[in-house]
Write a structure and sequence with these properties.
Layout lengths: L5 H4 L2 H15 L10 E6 L1 H8 L11 E7 L10 H13 L5 H8 L6 E6 L5 H7 L6 E6 H7 L3 E3 L4 H16 L8 H18 L10 E6 L6 E5 L2 E10 L4 E6 L5 H14 L6 E4 L8
Parallel strand pairs: 9-10
Antiparallel strand pairs: 1-4, 2-3, 2-8, 3-6, 4-9, 5-6, 7-8
Helix pairs in contact: 2-8, 2-9, 4-8, 4-9, 5-9, 8-9
């Protein structure tokens, strides 16, 4: 099979079919109707200086998030754990195409990721991702996210979940009749979907995060930022203004004063209907 083509991957019909497949595969774990808001933990500084663009070029590009190269995430077992688990599942299902799929993945496994959580007020999340309790959690409308971030799916924390997702993948294709001329597209699509699955498999130690991820494949030229003495690749991800529904004030902040300051600021740049709430978590960063 020819190596993956950027043009083909961004063909609208290919993306639409892949999106339908992802919805089918992840239906047992993720439904935007049941989870109306997803949260992105960050800092007040990031909200002010980066995330909310003061004078956006359009309403559709008013919010900026960074999708980080998967090699630089905090789980050191990222991707490799997914490969190991996927091989075990393929062997168990007696599917002999695993090595070919991994070979075809190539640079695709260097995906970029934006992380969200189903949890809006989690002490471990505040500690790890919310500036040690001095940060905020931005609540985004999950339906708006789904409309603009096609490949947004929950993380899988067990081999049983990974196995079920792959079974659903195979069931999806076996339920349809395909001509020989379609097989190249089908194999390519399976490779793309397996890439996304790889990016969703996480160590069970992180299950408390209840993470939902947006994954973008690495065809956009990366930019770089400095963090903890590492020069980290990332790509920009834009969202429309209406995506932001809520801001949760972290437990260590002066909650009333911080809430007032954020409310005044975001209203001044056009966010009129965003709810500001305060954390209830009994947490101090000592």
């Amino acid at each position: 099979m020819e190596k993956t083509s950027t043009t083909r991957l961004f063909d609208e019909s290919f993306l639409a079919e892949t999106e339908s497949l992802m919805d089918f595969m992840y239906d047992p774990w993720f439904n935007v109707q049941e989870i109306p808001i997803l949260y992105h933990y960050s800092s007040v500084k990031a909200l002010f200086s980066e995330i909310l663009i003061r004078k956006p070029e359009s309403e559709e590009r008013a919010i900026l998030l960074f999708a980080t190269d998967s090699r630089y995430l905090n789980d050191v077992s990222e991707i490799e754990l997914g490969k190991k688990m996927m091989r075990e599942v393929f062997d168990k299902m007696k599917i002999n195409s695993y090595d070919r799929i991994v070979d075809e993945l190539g640079e695709l496994e260097r995906m970029n990721i934006v992380s969200f959580s189903k949890e809006h007020d989690s002490i471990p999340m505040w500690s790890t991702y919310g500036n040690k309790g001095d940060g905020i959690a931005l609540g985004f409308d999950s339906q708006v996210l789904k409309q603009h971030l096609r490949f947004i799916c929950p993380c899988l924390y067990s081999q049983e979940a990974a196995e079920e997702s792959l079974r659903r993948l195979m069931d999806y294709y076996l339920a349809k009749k395909h001509s020989q001329s379609q097989m190249s597209d089908i194999v390519l699509q399976i490779v793309v979907v397996c890439t996304i699955i790889l990016g969703q498999i996480k160590n069970s130690y992180y299950e408390y995060e209840k993470e939902v991820r947006f994954i973008t494949l690495p065809f956009q030229k990366p930019e770089f930022r400095l963090k903890n003495n590492l020069i980290i690749p990332y790509v920009r991800v834009f969202l429309p203004r209406q995506a932001l529904r809520r801001v949760v004030i972290g437990p260590n902040l002066d909650r009333q004063l911080t809430a007032a300051s954020i409310r005044d600021y975001i209203r001044s740049i056009g966010y009129k209907n965003v709810e500001i709430i305060q954390s209830d978590a009994p947490f101090r960063n000592l």
